[in-house]
Amino acid sequence: MTPLVRGDQNALLAAPSLHRRSAEYVATATAGARFVPVWVATGVLVIVAAIIAPGTIQHTSWAYVLPYMTILAVAALGQMLVIMQGGIDLSTPGVMSLGGNLIVGVSLGRDHRLALGLLACLALGAGVGLVNGILVGIARLNPLIVTLAVGQIVAAYSLRYARENTNSLPVPPALTSWATGKDLGISSVFWTGAALTLVVALLLRYSVPGRRFQAVGANPRAAWMTGLHVRTHVVFAYTAAGTLYAIAAILLAGIRIYVDPAFGSAYLLAPIAAVVIAGASLSGGLASATSTWVAALSLTLLTQMLLVLGLSTALQYIVFGAAIITGMLISGDRFAALLGRVLRPAAPSTGQVEMGNNPTS
């Protein structure tokens, strides 16, 4: 056997470590790339809107788009936390409906009772989320069925509560005044939602509990083996989500002034679509709060563009549905999987590994 010179031996020794570094690079690249498509798609949508419906990006249009995209984004943040744990939550419309009615019913439409109404709304959201979390995380029931059933119960009680307590009362003027006010020429609702999104993003990325939360969602079995309480994280995800739905209800109530029977009904599937289009996987794991925000902007901007174009309601639903399907087909999760297959480094041959581990051969 021809003896190896020292350079050959060093190259063989380095092969496994180079392979590991390449694999780490690919993992990092694919994790970041999953959130790129939604940013690109939103940019393309803005360009298309400027060409075929310039009114979509005018100042008067943004006055509508920014508040409503913020409400969708806040609801989507709650849905994102649930999806990161491999779940789904269909109780959003029910929570928002009853939450809005509680604001009016508890406050009696008066400013001095507004704080009580807001607390009642937040307590409702956290309570419904806690029930969902216990049924899904502790009782191990199917999240789709559980949250749909809980949402229906809450929505039904909302109709009864509105009939007996609100009596067509408006939202307290102080809330309406705040929601319609502007700071630096932009809606206060937008700034509130932006701050909330930033807090969620920083906590998930840089805090120890946030990183643990992501780790549990990415691989519950491995997290359990390392001593993390998987069920506790699931319960927390649903509870936090319910609280965020309640915040979205507060923002929506401030903009709408009156809480009608359809209050919150538009937020059943749109938050889920925003989270998936933003690059999250329905199987759990990584997600991005800022990308979810951009996805909410994209969906709301698309709706506004269809209104500016004057399409019929039927055509609006067709285009909107087709856009969601297209967005899911090119979502960051699928893009990341494709990129991972393209960039995956070739494994070193068995002979190289064995010789690298035994340089005297």
List the SSEs and their pairings.
Elements (H helix, E strand, L loop, with lengths): L5 H28 L2 H17 L6 H26 L7 H16 L6 H25 L4 H24 L6 H8 L1 E2 L2 E2 H19 L1 H11 L1 H6 L4 H27 L13 H8 L11 H21 L3 H17 L2 H12 L6 H8 L4
Helix pairs in contact: 1-15, 1-16, 2-13, 3-8, 3-11, 3-12, 3-13, 4-5, 4-6, 4-11, 5-6, 5-11, 7-11, 8-9, 12-13, 13-14
Structural description of this entry:
Helix 4 (92-107) runs antiparallel to helix 5 and helix 4 packs across helix 11. The chain has 16 helices and 2 strands. The chain has a single domain, classed as ABC transporter involved in vitamin B12 uptake, BtuC. With 361 residues, the chain is mostly helical. Mean pLDDT is 83; it is low at 22-30 and 350-361. The chain has helices at residues 6-33, 36-52, 59-84, 92-107, 114-138, 143-166, 173-180, 188-206, 208-218, 220-225, 230-256, 270-277, 289-309, 313-329, 332-343, 350-357, and strands at 182-183, 186-187.
